[in-house]
Hints:
Blueprint lengths: L3 E4 L3 H13 L3 E7 L6 H5 L2 E6 L10 H11 L3 E3 L9 H9 L3 E2 L4 H8 L1 H10 L15 H11 L3 E5 L8 E4 L2 H19 L4 E5 L5 E9 L5 E13 L2 E7 L6 H18 L3 E10 L2 E8 L6 H8 L3 H9 L16 E8 L11 E2 L2 E3 L6 E5 L6 E2 L6 E9 L2 H14 L1 E3 L5 H7 L3 H5 L6 H12 L1
Parallel strand pairs: 1-2, 1-4, 2-3, 4-5
Antiparallel strand pairs: 6-7, 6-8, 9-10, 9-12, 10-11, 11-14, 12-13, 14-19, 15-18, 16-20, 17-19
Helix pairs in contact: 4-5, 7-8
Amino acid sequence: MIKKLLIANRGEIALRIHRACKEMGIQTVVVHSEADRDSMAVRLADESVCIGPAASANSYLKKSAILTAAEITGADAIHPGYGFLSENAQFADMVAAHDIIFVGPTADHIRIMGDKIAAKKAMIKVGVPVVPGSEGAVTSIAEAKKAAKLCKYPVLVKAAAGGGGRGMRVAHTEKDLEQAIKAAKQEAKAAFGDDAVYIEKYLEKPRHIEIQIMADSHGNVAHLWERDCSLQRRHQKVFEEAPSPALTQVQREEIGATVAKAVKKLGYLGAGTMEFLYEKGEFYFIEMNTRLQVEHPITEMITGIDIVRQQIRIAKGEEMSFTQEDVILVGHAIECRLNAEHPETFIPSPGMITDFHAPGGPGVRLDSAAYSGYTIPPHYDSLIGKLIVHGRNRRECVMRLRRALNEMVIGGIETTLGLHQRLVEAEDVIQGNYDIHWLERFLQNKTMQT
């Protein structure tokens, strides 16, 4: 039984979790830094606890402070959201050691999937297709050259730990490889404290396709179809849609079934996402995220399933409230990530929001904790919110998104709203004809034109 849940996060995701809890009759505790005293999640929560100064290392990443907050408020469970400690196996272990429910998978699964090399080996065992490359971390230039020769250039040098596109470099020839390894190792060491890297085949024009799954402790597993997250800048997702315009129904059913079968073999528990590169009809596993995804709302829109609510049910030891047969794909959904950044230079733009108007109408949802008079702090991710729209088909969805973006008002700071307004006018986006490199080319062409 969960009577009181502590939300170990901030911004729109903290508010999203709070809303799910209130609909389930669960009391909420929101922890916050000194910089987030005036956040909407803090205002709406039943209780709030300040856990430290603005710096994440001294607040949202401080495990002892979060656990102390849970103890003093009598919280039965902790939901980590995404980012921060959501994929920290040590934190999951510590939560369990304090007899508090961790809303997420087991620490063992977080640990395995947090190491890309171990995750790749695990996927091979359960029959999931992977990107060709080295069997594990390369320990010498000679070993790296051998692996690169086998999978053929160009290749990707990739950090074994972490994510978010850091610790990754492309080598187009053997001459490039040594420098790519050196640069990837330095970045990985600085970002993750681990400089292990491995080699993968670099796909020229793939799409980024991910499969949302859920599994409970009663042996029930289901996939919730796919999301297409190919519009990316520097490996960061910008615009996501579900289902993918690149897949046929047969293809999505086949990859969904493959992933669900693999998840059952792994004995996984909770929500998770398997990410693939897709090119020329083939899927290649790249990583598994053992947490709630930023883009989960588009899956909720096409399935009608509240993923956060299901996470909490599973954590309580209950069965999911649906089976695979109940997961019916209805219509199309798109999400735009709205950031406090200049729409062309992407320089962060923290500061006070002077005007704020959310679009409305049928099929429009805005997941945001922003409001007029709220100050975007400079200490964290620049995400202001996510505009999500749903339509009966992709064309209706794109037209609805165009209308909603034009209704949206965020004044006082620079935002990426203008970028999304340009994207929905681009013919390739309208037709769904893009890959993971398309947005970089689009932005480069825009710069050259100006």
